[in-house]
Design a protein that fits this description.
136 residues; nine-stranded antiparallel β-sheet; alpha+beta
Length: 136
């Protein structure tokens, strides 16, 4: 009887550890921007974000400029630093990158489940939803 209780306790502890760990890290790789909650964002094509979890860096390219931004993450909170980008001007094609950069400071928390990374504001409203594509 003691063996059954012991086995049950071990099984429950390992389930809890697994579920907590699943939301503690998101993998490095290429993510597709599924949605961006910004008024001026118009997804005219697929946009991708490359995340390097080891270096805490996110980067990519919109229609005109390449960009990179570092982030700090502790548990489920996340804060982005200043974005660095190339400075080309492309007439009529900068609204998406401007919308993205304008929302970075609003992002305060994150969740990762089923290969979907959600970046949320302080009230848990969705700002950006990213779908993991692969590890490039």
């Amino acid at each position: 009887m003691k063996m059954i209780y012991f086995t049950l306790i071990i099984a429950l502890m390992s389930c809890k550890t697994t579920s907590n760990k699943a939301n503690q890290e998101f993998p490095s790789g290429k993510y597709k921007i599924v949605s961006l909650n910004a008024e001026k964002f118009k997804a005219e094509k697929d946009y991708f974000v490359n995340i390097n979890s080891e270096k805490s860096r996110l980067g990519g390219k919109f229609d005109c400029n390449n960009y990179s931004v570092e982030y700090e993450k502790e548990k489920n909170s996340i804060n982005f630093g200043y974005a660095v980008s190339t400075k080309m001007y492309c007439e009529g094609k900068m609204h998406n990158e401007n919308a993205f950069f304008g929302k970075l400071n609003a992002i305060k928390t994150w969740s990762y489940k089923n290969q979907v990374l959600k970046l949320l504001d302080e009230n848990n409203n969705l700002i950006v939803e990213l779908k993991y594509v692969n590890n490039e």
